[in-house]
Amino acid sequence: MAVSEQAGTEAPGAGRRPPSPWRILNPVRGQIRLAMAISAGSALSALGVMVSLTLVIRALLDRPEIMPWGPLGAAALCTVAAYAARLGAFNQAHYAAFRLERILRIGLANRLARVSLGYVEAQGAGALAKVIHDDVKALHVFVADSTPLYARAYVTPVVTFALLWLFDWRLALVALAVLALGWGILRGAQRRRRDMVRAYNAAREKVSAAVVEYVQAMPVVRNFDSGQSSFGRYQAALDGYLAVMLDWYRAAGFPARFSWLMLGPMPTLTLVLGAGLWFSAMGDLSVPRWLGVLLACTGMAEAMMPMMMLRHMIEKVGLSVARIEEVMAAPDLDEAGAMPPGPLAFDPAAPALRFDRVRFSYAPDLPPALDDVSFEVARGSVTALVGPSGAGKTTVARLVPRFWDVTAGKIEIGGHDIRKIGAGRLMQQVAFVFQESFLFADTIAANIRIGRPEATEAEVIAAARAAQAHDFITALPQGYETRAGERGVFLSGGQRQRIAIARALLQDRPVLVLDEATAFADPENEAELIAALSELMRGRTVIMVAHRLATIRDADQILVFERGRIVERGRHAALVGQGGLYARLWQNYETAQNWSLGAAREGI
Ligand SMILES: Nc1ncnc2c1ncn2[C@@H]1O[C@H](COP(=O)(O)OP(=O)(O)OP(=O)(O)O)[C@@H](O)[C@H]1O
């Protein structure tokens, strides 16, 4: 399951609480503590203003003819200090947030560089990019805006209560009772909140999945579906979302609003005012004290609000933390047994590539996708993998660049177990061109240069020429400097493939893995693609998956897979002669070819 889906609805661990954000803040803990301390100082200074003003009033009531400069000056000083400290706290928190953002992004990028490519593929590039971007951003917002509030939210009510107690313990208890009542009702209203949040997230995910499906499937929808079933799914998701929202509103509505009202300053003020009137009428409360209580208790009620908001923010940011921690905990490619760095001597007598009793399962509870697969690929030869859908061909191709590691057995390059070579050195040996050729949002030239940034312009052009890409590249608006990839120029699947081939040519690595490299090609493109591939394959050790059997007729070795095992092996003519699975596949292929041209025309 992809990262985003997991944390969005069920996981991390259905029904479990999202983790606390504090642990992940460790790298900037010191600075956050500093921000909190300064913020607490600001809260105390604000209370100092209240106390000073109370002293001013008391002094004026006692001796109205003398201006109480001392308490007035203290009030002014405390006001300035409160604002300065507040600003300082937010500055510190923002610095910490920027530092944390950088640390987490670098950490996540480093992690992804070390995990297996299979993990990245399984999670989906989009979901991982969302973690690096959106979830880290959510933490930034939390640190920058919430941590100073946090200190204030806890310091202010406690210190205010102490002050109230000093002024008049009876009125302090009245204020506390009102707030406790509001708090109690709110907690009651929030008891169902976690379930509600989960139902809400699930409903929201369903809506976005339905939207994505509806938009992505638009061509299919228009052709076959007239929009009925996918739009129906979208509508059902929307209805579900509405039902959850209404349910939530009904369940939490009244108590929540009532408790917010209770936690506002008015109820506390009214009761303290009433109680104060009564006490002073009984001659039990001096006016300055009463005023002091009134001034302070508004602050106490107000301070409760951020507490509620912060609880909500912590729960929300917890989901982002869960997703970040999940990526951070992704297993490393096993590099423990890797040989020390330095040039590697390959055994010239060993085959270029060897699978030795390889067994591989995608997960411990899944049946093996490959079982007891052994073969050798001689240096400079071409090995083709064929077989029915799901037979394991792609899995073989992806085990070579270590998308995943074998479950049992081993894969060797030049006599070395690929797990021991180390990922970096392995990549110097193996180039791969897979079904989807990814182009970065950069110029075409930069995209070709990716494996060898130091390549000269002449080398880039030579590689593009050999890959049959030069002509269409020069026809683009800015030639090699045209931007490709996201929001760049639109390139067809076959053109992207040829750029990927030019890239692989420039990388000039001895072992080449091709998976379905001609899958995207239209008939005009195909001839060019095959020419490009022949250029790429020249002199290299090639292992290729191809559905178009014509492209592998001349392969030095054909391995026929069925249900994860090699069932036949040999050259084309011999295999056709055997009359087994390959012969059947070949016959089907030929029939399909003839049908596509001849029968289809007759049909029209
Ligand atoms: N990421 C994955 N997770 C779990 N199982 C997988 C995964 N990828 C492939 N499989 C399973 O492993 C088996 C072999 O799949 P593989 O893609 O290697 O077959 P293939 O011969 O390349 O098929 P095709 O010609 O249709 O591409 C299949 O049963 C497939 O369902």
TrEMBL record:
<keyword id="KW-0813">Transport</keyword>
<keyword id="KW-0067">ATP-binding</keyword>
<keyword id="KW-0547">Nucleotide-binding</keyword>
<keyword id="KW-0472">Membrane</keyword>
<dbReference type="InterPro" id="IPR017871">
    <property type="entry name" value="ABC_transporter-like_CS"/>
</dbReference>
<dbReference type="GO" id="GO:0016887">
    <property type="term" value="F:ATP hydrolysis activity"/>
</dbReference>
<dbReference type="InterPro" id="IPR011527">
    <property type="entry name" value="ABC1_TM_dom"/>
</dbReference>
<feature type="transmembrane region" description="Helical">
    <location>
        <begin position="66"/>
        <end position="85"/>
    </location>
</feature>
<dbReference type="GO" id="GO:0005886">
    <property type="term" value="C:plasma membrane"/>
</dbReference>
<dbReference type="InterPro" id="IPR036640">
    <property type="entry name" value="ABC1_TM_sf"/>
</dbReference>
<dbReference type="Pfam" id="PF00664">
    <property type="entry name" value="ABC_membrane"/>
</dbReference>
<dbReference type="GO" id="GO:0005524">
    <property type="term" value="F:ATP binding"/>
</dbReference>
<dbReference type="InterPro" id="IPR027417">
    <property type="entry name" value="P-loop_NTPase"/>
</dbReference>
<keyword id="KW-1003">Cell membrane</keyword>
<feature type="domain" description="ABC transmembrane type-1">
    <location>
        <begin position="34"/>
        <end position="316"/>
    </location>
</feature>
<feature type="transmembrane region" description="Helical">
    <location>
        <begin position="173"/>
        <end position="189"/>
    </location>
</feature>
<keyword id="KW-0378">Hydrolase</keyword>
<feature type="domain" description="ABC transporter">
    <location>
        <begin position="353"/>
        <end position="588"/>
    </location>
</feature>
<feature type="transmembrane region" description="Helical">
    <location>
        <begin position="34"/>
        <end position="60"/>
    </location>
</feature>
<dbReference type="GO" id="GO:0034040">
    <property type="term" value="F:ATPase-coupled lipid transmembrane transporter activity"/>
</dbReference>
<dbReference type="GO" id="GO:0140359">
    <property type="term" value="F:ABC-type transporter activity"/>
</dbReference>
<keyword id="KW-0812">Transmembrane</keyword>
<keyword id="KW-1133">Transmembrane helix</keyword>
<dbReference type="InterPro" id="IPR003439">
    <property type="entry name" value="ABC_transporter-like_ATP-bd"/>
</dbReference>
<feature type="region of interest" description="Disordered">
    <location>
        <begin position="1"/>
        <end position="21"/>
    </location>
</feature>
<protein>
    <submittedName>
        <fullName>ABC transporter, ATP-binding/permease protein</fullName>
        <ecNumber>3.6.3.-</ecNumber>
    </submittedName>
</protein>
<feature type="transmembrane region" description="Helical">
    <location>
        <begin position="258"/>
        <end position="278"/>
    </location>
</feature>
<dbReference type="InterPro" id="IPR003593">
    <property type="entry name" value="AAA+_ATPase"/>
</dbReference>
<dbReference type="Pfam" id="PF00005">
    <property type="entry name" value="ABC_tran"/>
</dbReference>
<dbReference type="InterPro" id="IPR039421">
    <property type="entry name" value="Type_1_exporter"/>
</dbReference>
